[in-house]
Write a structure and sequence with these properties.
Layout (H helix, E strand, L loop, with lengths): L1 E7 L3 E8 L13 E7 L4 E8 L3 E7 L3 H13 L14 E6 L10 E2 L2 H9 L8 H14 L5 E5 L9 H4 L6 H4 L9 H15 L7 E7 L3 E7 L2 E5 L20 H9 L5 H10 L2 H6 L5 H9 L3 H25 L4 E5 H6 L1 H10 L9 H5 L14 E2 L8 E4 L4 H15 L1
Parallel strand pairs: 1-6, 6-8, 9-12, 12-14
Antiparallel strand pairs: 1-2, 2-3, 3-4, 4-5, 7-8, 9-10, 10-11, 13-14
The structure holds adenosine-5'-diphosphate.
Amino acid sequence: MNVLVLNAGSSSFKSSLYQLTGEVPSDPVVPLWTGEVDWDSSGTVVLKAKTADNSVREERSGRSRTNDIHDLLNLLWSGKTQVINNIDEIDIVGNRVVHGGDKYRQPMLINPEVKAEIDRLSIYAPLHNPANLMGIEAIESLSGNMTQMAVFDTAFYRDLPEVAYVYPVPYQWLEQGIRKYGFHGISHQYCTRRAAELLGRDLGELRLISCHLGNGCSLAATKFGRCIDTTMGFTPLDGLVMGTRCGSIDPGIILHLLREGEYTVEELDHILNFESGLLGISGVSNDVREIDKAIDSGNAKAKLALDIYIDRLAAKIAYLLPALGGLDALIFTAGVGENHAGIRAAVASKLAFLGVEIDSYLNSLSIPPEAGVSSGDDRDLASGRSPVRLLAIHTQEEWEIARTCWQYLNTK
Ligand code: ADP
């Protein structure tokens, strides 16, 4: 069976083709083909596709995004990276969809009603849901009767208790959809299941905090197999300090700036999403590797940015603890979590009062960051006597979507 996964974002479109047979495997399968389109703000479009033996890279100036996606997918069945003969050999397409609102608490087969709801929910996820829909429609225009599934990032949070998702504002706002939704759910779902495997224990008996630390950052608290709280909220702007997003700040700041007429709503939206976080404080970059270099050359603002990032991270982990009632493992994942030994060590040291202790040798080993590389590199970084295990797990969102589609096909 061929499962094509689409992960369409606001400035990139990623896709992977998995060939699967037999029962749903628990270990991630390496995709047969991966492809990516990157649209940068200057109008340059980069198309990349790769198989185990071949790769293609093309740069061009923009046509329509749908055309770029079609051209990328063409590389599946033509040229150096051909792995199938035509689109009809694909059995199902799994689409990552960021926002499923209250309604979609599990994966859904795409139909006109589901598409209309994803479109309606674009008011809550203006950067993501329209891009996700564009991916779905790009496939429809290539093959009208393809089975497509939407796998929602918000669905992982379906069991959040009211105390976690209701905001302390007038209750009627809840009826307008103003509540905590949570994001990065596909990554947290994969990592918590993988953590149970690594620990050789049942997910239903574990209390876990997963730290997804990429450009966007979020924590999820999972108690006995059910996610009970998360740091992102109504939007992906809340919670931790991120690459360019501010995380939690006093809402009074926004009211003050609007009242003073200093910025329009659109300008503030842009500043809080794209000019804040590590970039905003340091003035250097959203990328921790650049922040590290700046710190090494004595940049005090870069040091402050990283100190705030780590402080907030440890504080928000601690904030999740009472509801979990203890902690069996802390999971580090995504670009920063998987690769940055210094941030992992700093967080562990701030949690030393809980007995948390990292093994500095294991922590210093690096794991390959490319998607699909190997789940064999996932490991426990805690010292033998630490009561909390510290796991570095390579997140595999595309695989999680493929697995969901595969499960659906197997049980149909
Ligand atoms: P996204 O949220 O866009 O999927 P990623 O999970 O790829 O992002 O994370 C991107 C961030 O991860 C980069 O901005 C950088 O800060 C960090 N990062 C990536 N690779 C490394 C590395 N080898 N060492 C340290 N940090 C890294």
